[in-house]
Amino acid sequence: MIKNKTRSASDKASEKTISPEAAAAGRRAENQEVAELPVKGFDYIEFYVGNAKQARYYYEHGLGFEVVGYKGLETGERHTTSYALRQNNITIVLTSALSPDHEVAEHVRKHGDGVRSIGLKVDDARQCYEIAIERGAVSVYEPRVQTDDFGIFVSAAVKTYGDTIHTFVQRKDYDGNIAPGYKLVNSWSGGVGLGTVDHVVGNVESGKMMEWVRFYENIFGFRVFQGFDASDISTQYSALTSRVMANRSGTIKMPINEPAPGEKKSQIQEYLDFYSAPGVQHIAMSTKNIIATVSQLKERGIEFLSVPRAYYESLKERVGLIDEDIEALSRLGILVDRESKGYLLQIFTKPVEDRPTLFFEIIQRKEGASGFGKGNFLALFESLEREQNQRGNL
Question: Domain span at residue 217?
Fold first, then answer.
């Protein structure tokens, strides 16, 4: 989110290539408990995009975000343009390069528009960074202290899968809206009820998922909250395996997917082929009224995956009594799954980039539901495969 015009020599030297498994090797004794990094939640998500001004329009008028900050030529930034947008507790940053040889331009050339940084809210960015490095994480940049009239802002970043990074964000002594360097903007277009980032999902290469599970266990102290294998997520043609990494408070959930062997190409492999690397597959955003939120999003032109009518014919038998009108859920294509503690409702957009890579999930959790809709996986995967087939990629 916050970048200096040039990186220091120590930053560049520390950004070396190393596997997460090798990085974490020897950092703890077998079965030794690793203290969890004190991550409080998601702070922001930054996208590198080809044209931030045009991308802003989609997120503002399509998804209902408010533009709250701007950084570019008019503010003295000579290398990039960034727009910060917010809806309730969700903050996204859209950054594009002003020259073809900038690292942002190279990222977009390789991946298309996509997520570069997952910002993690912490009380002490330096402490979290130093612990992560000591445990084997690879540095992207060392702690940076920035000040302006609103106070002190501290950030530091480490590598994760592909070209994705995790940025520790410390703003406890900062009263500004975004971060130093941003001009405050008020451009409210009306929200659609999106409240928080529920989870962020990453796709990695076949055979690499458990390496990244160990990375989050050994470096962040996170745990496997839930796991799914090919028997859980498969169709006639393709399959995947997944592990949900989470902190103990549940404020951070980051599933990791890898493709599993199948007769044809899975949606995970399609993503990897077009993104040219592991990366963020989708971002789930919560709402307290999914019917109202999805209705508004469709009116704004957001496209969602379709669900066959037959899915809803047995819905009552599968999930029991729910508050929502089944006909309304069917009309909108919203999936429902029951857990022991409650039930969840979810729907997935079509890819939001030209490449079939990133998409969004809208989710509502009811009666304490905290899982990931295992009962919906077949319907979801079949919907994804129908879209793949239309693209000629199945």
Answer: 194-391
